[in-house]
Design brief:
Structural class: mainly alpha
Order of helices and strands: HHHHH
Helix content: 55-70%
Shape: rod-shaped
């Protein structure tokens, strides 16, 4: 049986390897098929993350929580721009 090569980073090369494994083996268990699927998907996700195409729902929640633009912060406060100036203190140890 051919072993999976995790040093391959190209999804096309990994797909070719998986197709070769499937052709050579008739009786693949559901667990092994799941491992093959993960082998393909994880590589694709890694490559897409590098290209910054993936913005998951969880990532968008983090981005929205950490909004740092002046306009974004002002729109979230009921006083708007005045609310931001009310948050400012003279204490240098306060994290804003």
């Amino acid at each position: 049986m051919i072993k999976l090569d995790y040093t391959i980073e190209s999804p096309e090369e990994r797909k070719a390897l998986v197709e070769k494994i499937i052709e050579e083996n008739d009786n693949l268990t559901p667990r092994y098929l799941e491992i093959l699927a993960d082998y393909l998907v994880l590589c694709m996700e890694k490559q897409e993350r590098k290209e910054r195409k993936i913005l998951t729902e969880n990532r968008m929640m983090t981005v929205n929580k950490r909004e740092t633009s002046f306009e974004g912060l002002a729109s979230q406060l009921e006083n708007g721009e005045d609310g931001i100036y009310n948050l400012i203190t003279d204490n240098k140890h306060t994290i804003f």
